[in-house]
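sanity check this record:
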Amino acid sequence: FEEGHRKLGAVFASKVAYAVEKTKLYGQIGDHRRQTLAGLANILMAKDAYIRHHSESVARLTKMICRQMKLDDETVEWMYYGGLLHDVGKIGIRLDKLHATGKLSQEDYDIVKTHPELARFILEPLDILEDVKPVVYHHHERWDGRGYPAGLKGDEIPLGARIVAVADAYDAITSKRVYVKDTSHETAVAELSRNAGTQFDPDVVDAGAAQRKDGCE
């Protein structure tokens, strides 16, 4: 990372780590886990209006897919926060890189691709977020192993990351963040289905196809 990224991440992580340690003194870890997660999300969302909307949408979609897959309530909660924080590493990336129009240069694309690594750096000190970390860190892996940052394949990819990957892509398509003429639910599902078994977990795509973005809680 650039020195500015390191400084920003270090300050961010130290403030959150202090808050977490403070909560431990009062023995209120359960409630304060949620408060810590919400605080992290607010910091991320304060960076940019689109990131706020996108993060909330991905979190809601993630929850709906989890329920369609009949996961237990505790898992659904962690997956939800994984969706909400999946782009937390982008706090260290300049907005002009995140909102560039047209095709990114290879250099700019490589910069944007650092956000999972930056997220790992930010979240690493927070022991109470162990279940969330792999969801955030691995949501750009691909089912066929050609993703990043670790090149994991198939079931090697944490389930939460596979679910967030589908929710992330669905929201990108229906929010006109990728080049498609039609941003309907049907078009998004067709695109996800076309990439099931290569980019996405086919079972997660099937669960996501049953959900409507505007029906999320």
